[in-house]
Write a structure and sequence with these properties.
By secondary structure, the chain is mainly beta. Helices cover 3% and strands 35% of the residues.
Length: 136
């Protein structure tokens, strides 16, 4: 079946364009830095010992996403970081990272810190929408 577009001159509908594709720049020659994504949840003794809240160790019960990005030979002032919904966009003079996040995040309720000795940028983002299994 053929999809009708709103305007005859458009070549695709807005629903066909993946979210975050406006950030993608395939012609940028900078390399992607090494990174790791960690999930963090807030648990108390009632969770650990008694299991009262119903939380489990899965990512569905996590409140925060922590992204650790290795940026060797980079100064803090050279880092440009933009976070919107489900996309993290990081740019430095030598590296670039366009990362589609596994969960939507609150882009105004996050924090970043640069660990200069390890040359790592640590970004902590609060998950904004939980799935049906998340009890936060």
């Amino acid at each position: 079946s053929k999809v009708k577009s709103e305007n005859r001159k458009t070549i695709w509908n807005t629903e066909e364009v993946p979210e975050g594709s406006e950030f993608d720049d395939t012609w940028d020659p900078r390399e992607e830095p090494e990174y790791e994504i960690l999930f963090k949840q807030c648990v108390g003794t009632e969770d650990v010992f008694f299991g009262m809240s119903g939380k489990d160790p899965s990512t569905a019960c996590c409140e925060d996403i922590v992204i650790k990005i290795k940026l060797p030979e980079t100064k803090y002032s050279d880092i440009t970081l933009d976070i919107q919904g489900t996309v993290l966009d990081l740019r430095t003079p030598k590296k670039k990272l366009l990362l589609h996040l596994p969960y939507p995040v609150n882009s105004t309720d996050g924090r970043a810190r640069f660990l200069s000795e390890e040359e790592i940028l640590e970004v902590t983002l609060r998950v904004s929408k939980f799935d049906f299994m998340n009890f936060a």
